[in-house]
Amino acid sequence: MLQGSILQQLETAYRHSNRPIRFGVYYKNTLVALCHALEDHILSKEDQPIVITCFQRGKWYLQEAQRYADIAKCSREIAIMATSDAGFAEHPTSQLANVDLVPLQTSDPVSQEWHLMILSPQYTSMVICQELSDEDYGVTGLPGSDLERKFYGMWTFEPDVVLKAAEIAIAHIEKYNPELAQKLTQHKQAIKAEIASPEEIGKVVSLVIDYLKSGENTLSYPTATRQNTLSSNLVSNEVQAFLRMAQLIDIADIQNPMAAAEVAAIAEIIGQLLDLPAWQIKRLRLAGLLHRIDPLQQTESILTSPNKPTEQVAGPSCPLVPGAQVLRTMPQLRAIAQIITHQTEWWNGTGEPAGLTGEEIPLESRILAIAADFQWRVSQQKYSDQSGQNIFANALEQCRHQQSTRFDPKLIDTLSLLVMGLQQGLDLPIMSPKFSSSMWLIDSRWNSQELKIKN
Q: What pTM value is reported for the model?
């Protein structure tokens, strides 16, 4: 990581915080998809955001300059950093009143970075990366294709991280253009960005998924191994998009901000107590992390077939539960979608969406249901007058009242074992999902392990 770069300063700012920043490696094709998705969201709204971007070299900006003319119409101010190539300042977009260029020196570490920071009154989003050095590529050497260029960094919707990165970027711009830095600071201070609503984030996530899937479908490279590597990077980022969506839903829920991580941990322990195989426990964990994504029902674009725009994409044994249907657009997540879909079934057959009874309900759905209900009851007691009592025993007793009606009676017994452990000091293995390397959550055997559901 280059000393003095914006990425390096951002990492330093969060190094000793409660949420240190984790970075991953991205191929150029993935970054193009991410940036285009975030830019398209600007074009779809009228909230006049501030946009701070870095293209490394002017020639890369010129490839996108006409697109940025349209973005400028929807933006309050755009600052574009890049080393000055021929035509950099002469392009018509560069002449627009709310577009300012920052011609970087070639020795500037920021000239090796790729940024897109969006500060809107309704949401924030950011892609921030730094290209790998010659040494970083190691024995494989420099890439032979532009698509294979690699960048080290992250993308996020978190307001505090985006605002901090913008602050660092503006301070860097001040070295070149103090007046522009002052103008950007004034605009930034006028924007009180907050966590966006799940619906708002859902719209952005849908665009991200659309672009990533499009990039995956059109990817063409003569070497199969390299094409698989590029495709895997896109798929990993599709999973990241869903995980980030779930994380932000949790952050926005001040009464239950750790729901996804805690439900995933509870479901995982129940799976271990039941001696389930490792691949199934991993599947349970991912279902727990994604079990709250129903607000994605507003994101219509990825619920439609690409060949028949008005037709809903449906799958076998998966009724139209909006959040789960979005997951089904990824073959690698269809089993997860099915687990989430049937978490609202009841043991006595009175649940939804399919009215399944008893062991007709997939085991993982039954586990997810009881884990989510138990976690919710514990979290509610933490914010009530009962916080001094044995909240685990209370939550278990409330779940027990629904034994044989809503919940599998055998799973109530398993949950009792977990509660005994919690009462004796067992800590839940709460871990933040590794957004930068989401493929660890995907198991190649999942597609062959169908959930058996009687319709």
A: 0.68
